[in-house]
Amino acid sequence: MKIETRRLQYHDGDVVLEGMVAWDGDARGPLPGVMIAHAWGGEGDFENGKARALAELGYVGFALDMYGKGRRGGNPDENAALMQPFVENRSLLQARIGAALAACRALPEVDAARMAAIGFCFGGMCVLDLARSGADLRAVVSFHGLLGAPGNTRDVQIPARVLVLHGHDDPMVPVDQVVALQTELSEAGADWQVHVYGNTMHAFTNPAAADPDFGTVYSAVADRRSWRAMSDFLEDSLA
After folding, report:
1. In terms of Cα–Cα distance, which of 2, 26, 30, 15 is closest to 104?
2. pLDDT digits (tens, 9 = 90+) for 53-105
3. In this structure, what CATH number is given to the domain that contains residue 52?
4. What is the reported pTM?
5. Nearest to 66 by CA among 48, 93, 47
């Protein structure tokens, strides 16, 4: 196996976006594509590492860009300023990640009929909204994502399988939001699963998360378990 990477520019209307693609250069023929939606700081080393890890599992990993080429946050205030327009305008969010799906599907390395998306924190909300919009892909996986419904997809059926990986002690996502999401997914006809990890807070996959007062704490156990759950889910969904 020879993991190769390249930067990819694509567009959402007039907005120039740039992400990273990783794939096995020794593979024969197209592979399933798995997009990675970033947390509130923007696409970076964490997401690029996940793209490489997915390439090692036999997929084309695409670390997408929600904010625009070169637009990244460096602290919580900057991160929040970048994320907030998409939280407030979920149609904008859905269009932006839809552009990423189109760009990934068009890659020559990708089997366009076998697509999935995973996301972390803000990215979890992004991939859930992609599924909620009725997008044509096989599966989405949310890691400690924001779960609130967008309000503009109430009557849309969800063809994608959905896996939500959630920390029970996440202060940003109270239990009633988890229950509401389950009801929402059932009403939309989705094939869904929710895995809840006890004694686990927000950002549990991020080794740099170490702020219990803010609610973000890394958990090696939940990180390992959630990645294994995702791997099994994608293997089943993209076969």
Report:
1. 30
2. 999 999 999 999 999 999 999 999 999 999 999 999 999 999 999 999 999 99
3. 3.40.50.1820
4. 0.97
5. 93
